[in-house]
Amino acid sequence: MVNKTFTVIEEVGIHTRPASILVQAASQYKAEVNIEYNGRSVNLKSIVGVMSLGVPYGAQIHIAAAGADEDMAIQGIEEALKSEGLGEPCEVI
Description:
The chain is an alpha+beta fold. The chain has one domain (2-89): HPr-like (Histidine-containing Protein, Chain: A, 2-Layer Sandwich). The chain is 34% helix and 29% strand. The protein has 3 helices and 5 strands. It has helices at 16-27, 47-52, 70-83, and strands at residues 2-8, 32-37, 40-43, 60-66, 87-89. Strand 2 (32-37) and strand 3 form a beta hairpin. Helix 1 runs antiparallel to helix 3 (70-83). The mean pLDDT is 95. It comes from Paenibacillus apis.
């Protein structure tokens, strides 16, 4: 399993458009991919699940992938977050 933490930088949080972008990015991979926020974890390939989290601006989210292409999944999702201005990786201290 591979995981990474990100800070949401989209002003309105993870609403419909950002959720759709993340679901599309995650759906390209065979790995099981989950997003966790505020103690709840949902399948990142489910738009309804992602929207149900209600992730606001400034929140820290954790993305976890498990499966054959887990490394590529995390990298692809990170690229989508950065290129769309949705989130940035948290620095590990």
